[in-house]
């Protein structure tokens, strides 16, 4: 039983094998699990009674995963690497590996192949996309990313200081971004060369004793402006003052839920929560209280507003939004019904606008075999898209009432940058150019020239069209847009993290405030003598489709095409506007007199672009104007595209921050606030789903990760780590300093809901050395978590596989973020986390008190001091596990100085190396390594002597010998050899054989047992 700080209880039932079978949380939210005879999850049923079923291969790799009759099937090679992923519709993705086990190719169902290359140190050196365009990567002597060169020759260069911190970036545009660090390796100053008069030339950061960023000062055109943050005792943000001096104050409850926000005008928003920490009430000044309900599994069920209007959500058996009904007094304001194919692609949207001439609109969607949208059938228009191998739209044709209205041919350069768009039917001819850093620089459309300017951080600072007054933009240190100006008109923006909180005029008077539940935008207050209150109605992708007055009448309606271009809008004048879509730029009309558009992006009607926070989005061509700041994932080639929106599938994915697409068929699938500063070394970041409750399954092919509230500590789900990967979630309420990782865990021997104090951790691990893991919860994660490291009893080999999996799954993108280390773990005490990881067989570099603990890749080194010396190449497998690109969990292989006659004889007979151990771990040794075997002997030191122990299970199976057996099996697994156990002086007892067999089967290792008298 777990009781949180508010006295709410979660009760868990276990079977005889200490596996969680049922969990009951407050409000009767109950989840349950069943297991296979081998101990893997067979079924998982959530609190809404949706059951996911799993089957496994003989080696216990996940084979099938089925929800609502939709089955994803996986296949693996002999090393356990995934080779096939068959989607529920039968279409298959293929994964190939080179002779060293490194990911070599990814082939989609359309036979488009992405190819990867590596150097001898397993650094990824090239990506050849499906259009045969190659991006190359260079590394320094310490395997840190030193250069990246695009097709055409544009290149980035990275340099590092002695501690491995990124010291400078030379950009393709000829600018240098230089950073200095303090003694704890925290970024202090960043200087931008070649900064213009309206650009930041230097940024200076300050920290408190807990490494929270307390202030960021930017120098712009000779003036310095400062942003400050204050934190409470749990390191939660308590007060923020932005660069314009506007404040926001926060308060929290005992379990870390944010309960109050007070803006710079003193307006207070209050949030209430149920016993499952789900947002149930939002009270806004002048608007009253908006109520929300959720299903037992945490999906949004309804919203009831003070004006009496209501929004109700229904879900299909797979948990996808099936319908949304916006009503008042029984009358429909607007409603949506959705249908999906087996892969979860939306194939139909039925839209009903009550009380308007629009009536009912049915839109049908079609996809190619790679799940890319290629046809949209609207009531008034049919549009077809032709895509190339990497997702670039090469042709777009449209008909209305059977007549052609558009036929666009689109051209691209070697960097997938859109360079031309010619439409002979609509008489549109657009030519675009880019700078060397990949930013859209000029656009000439039908004789009208647009120019774009950028600062050293590749943020758009100005757009000018023809002889019109330039449109200029200003940003804060985090990269959020603070102001937009044109001529004498200036609008300033204030944020709650990354959500728009308020708009003000040039002198700081508030124009509008925006109000949110925990998951979405709900309302607006327009300032004035009599403030006007409006409520937002959203579709499944969080796009505003209608606004209601305080009395509940409709003041505006908007319809979008699949990519976000406005196709119809009804404003306060009552006129329905249907702009032409076949123009040089999107027409983001603003008759609704508010700034929020498609999926929550801020619309700039002056440019036809959406401000998507990290960059700008052009819905007319479904592309961003600048490169993606995220590296992408090798296993998912669509994520590697620098400009493509939502993997070319805008009905399933959306990109709330302009950084990374995530699945959007739940309202709360993607977090509203997740931000890291631009121009840091690109590293792989995967946002967690906004999952409610302490126990949630991780899904293999969706890169989902556990997100646990502080009230749920110790309640991780039972998951087989061979099938789930170690993936990160980045939170940077400061300046990107807090990086946290969570591992899907397979608890095999119980779980603890208590905290191991730092001073007791060494003794705890020593006593539980065979079963342990570490979960590090950073101080920014939740109120009750504080600075504790939570330890759970875990199988060591599962820990190693998860740590090793980082390198294979994310490759170069991790190395670009690190120095020698390839892992970062945010922990309040480096000593605590370091102790745990070191004892699990991982090298630690770093000192206590550092804001980020460095976990090093192991060193390739073999010391020859006795026996039959062999070259270090024979031991390469120990540094590169079964899938090259993995990094071995072994700290360092060395030959022992102790002469063991039995081991020497053992090695001689098999032409191997004797007395090998892991340096620093006396109990982690094995007696022989040959070309075929990793072996261990048990018995007398001298051949012929009687054994000094009985070979019975009880007397033989000491802790040391258990570890020796496991170490031998693990080494055999990593080096793809057989394990060999030799018992001198008699045959082992059945308990010993069973122990070897069980552990060998678990890691998939063949073994032999030899006996001699």
Automatic annotation (TrEMBL):
Keywords: Endonuclease, Hydrolase, Nuclease, Repeat. Residues 1-26 have a biased composition (Basic and acidic residues). It comes from the Bacteria. Residues 310-643 form the Teneurin-like YD-shell domain. GO terms for molecular function: endonuclease activity. Residues 1-31, 70-91, 855-874 are annotated as: Disordered. Residues 70-89, 858-874 have a biased composition (Polar residues). This is Restriction endonuclease fold toxin. Transmembrane segments: none annotated. Residues 897-999 form the Tox-REase-3 domain.
């Amino acid at each position: 039983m777990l009781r949180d700080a508010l006295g709410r209880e979660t009760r868990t039932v276990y079977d005889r094998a200490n596996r969680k079978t049922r969990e009951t949380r407050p409000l009767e939210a109950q989840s349950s699990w069943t297991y296979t005879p081998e101990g893997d999850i067979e079924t998982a049923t959530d609190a809404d009674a949706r059951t996911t079923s799993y089957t496994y291969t003989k080696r216990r790799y996940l084979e099938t995963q089925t929800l609502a009759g939709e089955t994803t099937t996986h296949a693996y090679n002999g090393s356990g690497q995934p080779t096939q992923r068959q989607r529920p519709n039968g279409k298959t993705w293929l994964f190939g590996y080179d002779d060293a086990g490194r990911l070599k190719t990814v082939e989609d169902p359309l036979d488009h192949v992405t190819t990867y290359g590596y150097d001898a140190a397993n650094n990824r050196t090239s990506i050849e996309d499906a259009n045969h365009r190659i991006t190359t990567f260079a590394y320094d002597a310490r395997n840190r990313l030193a250069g990246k060169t695009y097709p055409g020759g544009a290149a980035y260069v990275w340099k590092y200081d002695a501690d491995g911190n990124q010291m400078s970036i030379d950009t393709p545009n000829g600018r240098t971004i230089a950073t200095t660090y303090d003694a704890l390796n925290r970024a202090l100053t960043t200087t931008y060369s070649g900064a213009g008069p309206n650009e930041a030339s230097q940024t200076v950061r300050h920290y408190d004793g807990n490494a929270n960023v307390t202030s960021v000062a930017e120098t712009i055109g000779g003036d310095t402006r400062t942003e400050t943050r204050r934190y409470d005792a749990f390191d939660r943000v308590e007060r923020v003052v932005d660069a314009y001096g506007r404040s926001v104050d926060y308060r929290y409850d005992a379990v870390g839920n944010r309960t109050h926000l007070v803006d710079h005008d003193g307006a207070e928003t209050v949030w209430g929560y149920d016993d499952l920490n789900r947002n149930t009430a939002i009270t806004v000044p002048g608007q009253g209280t908006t109520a929300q309900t959720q299903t037992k599994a945490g999906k949004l069920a309804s919203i009831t507003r003070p004006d009496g209007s209501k929004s109700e959500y229904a879900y299909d058996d797979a948990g996808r939004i099936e319908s949304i009904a916006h009503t008042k007094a029984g009358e429909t304001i607007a409603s949506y019904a959705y249908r999906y194919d087996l892969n979860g692609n939306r194939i139909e949207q039925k839209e009903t606008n009550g009380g308007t001439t629009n009536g009912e609109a049915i839109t049908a969607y079609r996809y190619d075999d790679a799940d890319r949208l290629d046809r949209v059938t609207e009531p008034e228009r049919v549009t077809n898209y032709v895509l190339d191998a990497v997702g670039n739209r090469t042709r777009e044709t449209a008909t209305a009432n059977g007549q052609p209205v558009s036929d666009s041919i689109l051209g691209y350069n070697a960097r997938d940058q859109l360079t031309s768009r010619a439409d002979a039917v609509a008489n549109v001819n657009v030519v675009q150019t880019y700078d060397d850093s990949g930013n859209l620089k000029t656009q000439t459309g039908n004789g009208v020239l647009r120019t774009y300017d950028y600062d050293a951080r590749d943020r758009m600072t100005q757009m000018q069209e023809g002889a019109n007054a330039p449109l200029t933009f200003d940003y804060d240190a985090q990269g959020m847009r603070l102001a937009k100006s044109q001529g004498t008109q200036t609008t300033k923006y204030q944020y709650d993290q990354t959500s728009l909180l308020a708009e003000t005029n040039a002198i700081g008077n508030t124009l509008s405030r925006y109000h949110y539940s925990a998951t979405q935008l709900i309302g607006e207050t327009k300032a004035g003598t009599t403030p006007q209150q409006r409520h937002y109605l959203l579709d499944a992708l969080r796009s505003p489709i209608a606004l209601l007055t305080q009395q509940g009448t409709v003041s505006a309606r908007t319809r979008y095409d699949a990519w976000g271009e406005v196709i119809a809008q009804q404003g306060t004048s009552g006129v329905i506007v249907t702009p032409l879509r076949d123009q040089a730029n999107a027409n983001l009309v603003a008759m609704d007199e508010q700034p929020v558009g498609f999926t929550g992006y801020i619309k700039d009607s002056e440019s036809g672009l959406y401000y998507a926070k990290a960059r700008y989005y052009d819905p007319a061509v479904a592309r961003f104007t600048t490169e993606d700041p995220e590296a992408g994932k090798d296993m998912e080639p669509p994520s590697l595209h620098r400009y493509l929106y939502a993997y070319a599938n805008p009905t399933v994915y959306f990109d709330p921050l302009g950084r990374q697409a995530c699945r959007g068929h739940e309202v709360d699938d993607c977090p509203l606030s997740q931000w890291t500063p631009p121009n840091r070394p690109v590293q792989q970041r995967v946002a967690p789903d906004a999952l409610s409750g302490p126990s949630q399954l991780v899904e293999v092919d969706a890169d989902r990760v556990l997100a646990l509230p502080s009230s749920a500590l110790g309640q991780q789900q039972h998951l087989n780590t061979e099938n789930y990967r170690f993936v990160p979630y980045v939170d940077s309420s400061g300046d990107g300093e807090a990086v946290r990782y969570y591992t899907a865990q397979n608890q095999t021997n119980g779980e603890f809901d208590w905290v191991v104090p730092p001073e007791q951790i060494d003794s705890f691990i020593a006593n539980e050395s065979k079963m342990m893991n570490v979960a590090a919860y950073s101080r920014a994660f939740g109120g009750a978590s504080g600075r504790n490291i939570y330890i759970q009893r875990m199988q060591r080999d599962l820990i190693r596989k998860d740590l090793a999996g980082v390198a294979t799954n994310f490759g170069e993108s991790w190395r670009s973020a690190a120095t020698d280390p390839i892992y970062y773990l945010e922990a309040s005490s480096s000593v605590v986390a370091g102790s745990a990881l070191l004892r699990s067989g991982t090298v630690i570099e770093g000192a206590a008190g550092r804001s980020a603990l460095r976990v090093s890749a192991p060193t390739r080194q073999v010391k020859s001091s006795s026996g039959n010396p062999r070259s270090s190449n024979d031991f390469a497998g120990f540094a590169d596990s079964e899938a090259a690109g993995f990094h071995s969990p072994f700290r360092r292989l060395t030959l022992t100085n102790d002469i063991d006659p039995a081991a020497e004889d053992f090695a001689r007979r098999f032409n191997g190396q004797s007395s090998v151990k892991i340096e620093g771990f006396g109990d982690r040794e094995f007696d022989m390594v040959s070309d075929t075997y990793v072996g261990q002997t048990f018995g007398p030191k001298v051949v012929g002597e009687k054994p000094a122990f009985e070979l019975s299970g009880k007397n033989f199976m000491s802790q040391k010998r258990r570890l020796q057996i496991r170490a031998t099996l693990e080494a055999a697994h990593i080096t793809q050899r057989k394990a060999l156990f030799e018992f001198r002086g008699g045959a082992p007892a059945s308990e010993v054989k069973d122990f070897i067999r069980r552990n060998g089967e678990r890691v998939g290792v063949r073994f032999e047992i030899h006996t001699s008298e």
